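Why predict the complex rather than its parts? Because the way molecules touch one another can change local conformation, and only a joint prediction can capture that. The input here totals 1180 residues.
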Amino acid sequence: MNSMRIGFIGLGAMGAGMAGNLLKAGHAVTVWNRSPAAAEALAKLGANVAKDARSVGEGVQVLHSMLANDAAVRAAILDSGVLDALPKAAVHVNHATLSVALVRELVEAHERRGLGYVAAPVFGRPDVAASGGLNIVAAGKADAMAKVLPLLEPLAGKVWPMGDDPVRANVVKIAGNFMIGAAIESMAEASALTRAHGVPAKDFLEVMTGSLFAAPVFKTYGGLIAEENYSPAGFKMSLGFKDIGLARSAAETERVPMPFASVLHDTLLEALAAGEADLDWSALAKVAARRAHIG
Amino acid sequence: MNSMRIGFIGLGAMGAGMAGNLLKAGHAVTVWNRSPAAAEALAKLGANVAKDARSVGEGVQVLHSMLANDAAVRAAILDSGVLDALPKAAVHVNHATLSVALVRELVEAHERRGLGYVAAPVFGRPDVAASGGLNIVAAGKADAMAKVLPLLEPLAGKVWPMGDDPVRANVVKIAGNFMIGAAIESMAEASALTRAHGVPAKDFLEVMTGSLFAAPVFKTYGGLIAEENYSPAGFKMSLGFKDIGLARSAAETERVPMPFASVLHDTLLEALAAGEADLDWSALAKVAARRAHIG
Amino acid sequence: MNSMRIGFIGLGAMGAGMAGNLLKAGHAVTVWNRSPAAAEALAKLGANVAKDARSVGEGVQVLHSMLANDAAVRAAILDSGVLDALPKAAVHVNHATLSVALVRELVEAHERRGLGYVAAPVFGRPDVAASGGLNIVAAGKADAMAKVLPLLEPLAGKVWPMGDDPVRANVVKIAGNFMIGAAIESMAEASALTRAHGVPAKDFLEVMTGSLFAAPVFKTYGGLIAEENYSPAGFKMSLGFKDIGLARSAAETERVPMPFASVLHDTLLEALAAGEADLDWSALAKVAARRAHIG
Amino acid sequence: MNSMRIGFIGLGAMGAGMAGNLLKAGHAVTVWNRSPAAAEALAKLGANVAKDARSVGEGVQVLHSMLANDAAVRAAILDSGVLDALPKAAVHVNHATLSVALVRELVEAHERRGLGYVAAPVFGRPDVAASGGLNIVAAGKADAMAKVLPLLEPLAGKVWPMGDDPVRANVVKIAGNFMIGAAIESMAEASALTRAHGVPAKDFLEVMTGSLFAAPVFKTYGGLIAEENYSPAGFKMSLGFKDIGLARSAAETERVPMPFASVLHDTLLEALAAGEADLDWSALAKVAARRAHIG
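Output of the joint prediction:
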């Protein structure tokens, strides 16, 4: 394998594990994070710590970023100057879950500078990021993809190429996150129904997740609902609300009615109104139970 | 194993396979079906063919029934006289998906006659019934369950005991069928979203069912949506509509708001209005696409 | 005016006022009610009190009934024998709000006996019934309508003929009651929104009901919401829930998706779950406020 | 009456009529519009035509603006420099329907400059604007309101003071527009129901708008539905969609679930997907009929 000069911006719960895997794979990784502690930890594993986001771009062949949302990407990528610091023909592979609108803006900003751009959003929680088992959906022009795909190897259990338009990868990610929210709301309502008839959520979900719904999403979130284990959150209600907002925005631009997304919007809003922003979003089961006045 | 004298009423796509497995397990099975052809086929495998539903009850230790809905059960079980033909202490194990109200009526009708009653609804399609791989949720008084559980062995991949009140098994079945409908609608809306942004349903669903949603329900129905393979139906839209109606009725009696079930009610109604009653209910994907005016 | 021999079954809050107006108009009215007190009160105004529902039919030219729901009509009209007691060519004018299915059954039961049938459901609350200001929607065959229309004069502020099929009048009534429920939910959600932004419901509704929404439904129910005056109920939540159920059934038979009716079903269910069955159905405003966690 | 020196920005269908009424009331009005034709027309009635938006502010005591949306207000008021051209203690009365967020920004921008600010959104269509019969909801600090209220006289049939925080007036306007949309969707679904049962929308709506729903909103939009008179639009579907979006945004910031607004979002989106952006928003009746597959 070719050891490459890589930049990595964004070392939160997800990014720290991913940058670590790139180091373990033998690459020369220069890192930066808004709060420096995470960067220091990676320095111990051999990373170079840049003084700011811009400098991460100097001399690297591929820049990875794993940021939280549109605002973080706008600040650390578009406004920081890193795109101007990157060498010509360098490629930026962006792992964030973003709005379709911002992705279009990023594609243009990279093209204008002769830089490659690959959208590579990920499915998986922090433990899966650390163990290199993510599912990564990737899309971008062929030459950029060729540079990036080998770098996704140490990060992913599986890579899903989605064509040459980066927007396509983000749309798959957004639609997938919507399906996760729908799975949670489905278990929330079904559990409220069985509880009202004397069957505990745990007993019901055990049957479902042990048979027809034996899939990671249902086992993970169904387990949290069964145990009423909503804190600390694996994925916060406020982030779930943001993700459903991304789905609704993407739906709106293309005039796609999504009544399940509308229901999710309202039940998530109800959870936020109840002060549950920091609970795991499987706590939508509490909203369903409250509406039925089940203790 | 004890060979037992068993009755079996209802030899449709599901029941024929189940009765066949009881015969193969070495039991003496007496069968009856409204249209006689299916009974004749089982006679070749060693079944006795009763002349009417009532006579099935004569001299059997356990009566199985696998009927389509409330109306079929009312006719073949409550009105046929079979409960009066059954010997004292015989047990009826009812595999139908029924309303909670009817189950309560059945429990009382059996108790009044000193008969055991086990509700044992099943999850699985006809091919799974034939191969003895069903997931069966069973609930009833301890002594009735003791008689019935060995008979479920040749029918099921797994049996899930749900307590001593038969209603609990039906509630689990109803709630599970609701979750299947919700899974389909979720894939329908998500696919409409990705299609509107240029990503075919097939590409999107391949990622989902190959990772986070790698479960039988999603693989089966996601496959039908990806291939637009809605006919002949595995499970008709009209039956899906009936099942969601059972969930809504069960929710109504216990005052449980279920907004996802309400959305499903309306999208299924729209499919029926479009003349799609006989398509597989995964054709809800056509409704979502139509609403977005995607060809 | 011709004084006619009239029967009147059902002397609840609505029926008592209506029977009284027929007496005042100079007709010979024979009455019956399940609880006799209301009949006694009308006897003082000159009514004859029949000993049972059946006898009301003897010798009258027109039978009026003002009953609460399908079950009451089935008992007092179909099962009581009154249809067999009515003289040939007598007409029954039924003011109840009924399911479309029952109306079809009633039409057939009357035709079979050579009796006329007019569906004449009413809009208006008990005070309006007493003052003879109801809005009455009436439909039935021409000869039956000819007999009945003069009798509606003392009952109604306005009569709206709706053709020769009685079902049409009931459909208008059902759809109108749905619109009333939708008006209430609309004010409930709008008020929760303004309250959350510091504008009391009273101030907001005053503007609306004093301008764009200056109509009886909005003034009446908006006033109750503004004053939080939910008890004693003018029209109970449980009856509102029943009415929305009639709309949903009528929609289901003809495959008409009604998402607003689905929302109403769920918010009404939430109110019932909260123990608010006996509050006025304008208390849907409490449900909206609760969901937003507004005190 | 004191003749005042007034500026007026925004001379669309609504603003032209309003500016005209201020001229007729004897005030000295300086006008500006992005497309000059409307300004020329008012010059004939005695208006001064400013060369740009900024100059409108020079020397006036009160500036009125009647602009279409957030973007138009940002351009013509915040970015044009007019606020810096206004004399100290001048008051700006803004008639636009705006997001709560922008109103907060405007309040701060005016306070910082020592200018008064009154939010005075209006209810009524262009013909009502021309005849001076608008319903105007107004809120702002007491001294600013004192200057502005006399100027609203020639514009309004009625003025509704809503306190000293301009946001409150906009919230009332947003909530009122939501109620209009809900009224339309309610008539759309009710009409689809009656049509499916053989009662034309026209017959049904005639009863409703002639009795319980005898209010301007229902008579106007009900009339359009009854006649299927959707073009040319009185108020376009695309503008209705924008207004429901404002309600949803306002609801989101305060965590107020609004399921009726969610349904409206999806049915309006469906209309836009069908290419109906330029039809009157009463054409939501076509969406309801289409979903039921009624011709």
